[in-house]
Amino acid sequence: MSSSKLIVAVLGGPSPGIKEAWPSITSGHDTDPFPLAIQCFSQDQADRIMRLQNYTVKFIEGNSPSTIFATLAIFKEDITGFFPNHEEFFSIVHGWKVGIFLDRPMALAQVNGLEIQKFHKFKTLIEALHFMIFKGNIPNDESQLTSTGLTRDTKSFVTIHRSSTSQRQHGVPQPASLQQLATQFKQLQVKSPTSYQSIDSSSLPIVFHYNRSLSGITGIVFVGESDNINSDSPPAGVLGIDAEKYLFAYGYQASAIWSIIHAFREGHSSQDFTNYLCTRGMPLLEAKYLFELISGRDVYLCDSAFI
Question: Are 91 and 128 in contact, with CB atoms under 8 Å apart?
């Protein structure tokens, strides 16, 4: 149920922040991606959206739409959690007011009576953001679609990574390559020639650690943020100090650590251990190294290579 008080989170532009009135934003398919207004039902939702402004948008808003969305896509899991029980997001590019609306009657009121309309309804906020950032001009280039995580056929957000045939057959979600993530985060400090001010690199947020499942990064914890420790985490000492320090530093979630414990206890060899974890998304080299940390034995790799 929507609140009677209008709450709007405004990302980017000259006056970002939480507003009680819809801001005046230029309408049209060839306007800049920002400012971008998003309707919220609560102050908490608005506060969470504004974290994107503080940690991401203010560093990248002068870049191309492709770069902007590719960077925001890194935070897909966090963005999905902003409105966990809502499945109607109306992106209005050309209307009386433009932005992302949650309320259907309010959204329709922005296009009624207009000869030129450009809007679309989506089930997820990340899809709605994609439409607004590209102003409804969905890229035709397949590589551009792939890099932003959208497929042309379904128009729904999915994580797309290269993976081996055997991993695809097992339906294992693959993590983005570290090189790809490093490149995208490097772009946080790159701006196209615009009228925006230069970036002070000292103001960039510092990552404390990534949250990880076996199949890859699921979230980010920055320095200064609270880091909630799962109450269902395994007791200390089960896997040994070296392995547990490694898993803690890399932000593995409790469910992933329990799976690692199961793989080590139930497996009869390093191959059993790595097969169990790799079919659930962990890279082979990491699984082999983790087995070394837990068992204390060197594990030689294929083609006479070893760590």
Answer: yes
Q: Which residues contact 92 (CB under 8 A, 6 or more apart)?
A: 98, 99, 100, 101, 107, 110, 111, 118, 119
Closest to 209 (Cα-Cα) out of 251, 242, 177, 170: 251
Q: Of the candidates 138, 122, 146, 159, which has an alpha carbon nearest to the alpha carbon of residue 38?
A: 122
How many helices (DSSP H) and strands (DSSP E) are in the chain?
Answer: 13, 8
Give the dihedral of Cα atoms 17, 21, 25, 29; nearest 10 deg: 100
Structure tokens at 170: 């097992």
Distance from C-alpha of 249 to C-alpha of 254, rounded to nearest angstrom: 13
Q: Give SS3 for 17.
A: strand
pLDDT above 80: residue 226: no
Q: Which range, of 22-26, 102-106, 125-129, 151-155, averages the lowest pLDDT?
A: 151-155
- pLDDT tens, position by position, 245-299: 899 888 898 889 989 998 888 887 888 899 999 999 999 999 999 988 888 765 4
What Cα–Cα distance (Å) separates residue 82 from each residue in 42, 46, 77, 192?
Answer: 11, 9, 9, 29
Token pair listed for 161:
């990574």
What would the pLDDT profile of 136-151 be if each residue is shown by its tens digit? 876 544 334 444 444 4
Give the residue ranges of DSSP H helices in the chain.
43-52, 58-60, 65-72, 76-80, 104-109, 125-133, 142-148, 165-169, 178-186, 241-249, 254-266, 270-278, 284-295
Look at the pTM and tell me if it is higher than 0.90: no
Please state the φ and ψ torsions of residue 150, each to the nearest 5 degrees. -115, 145
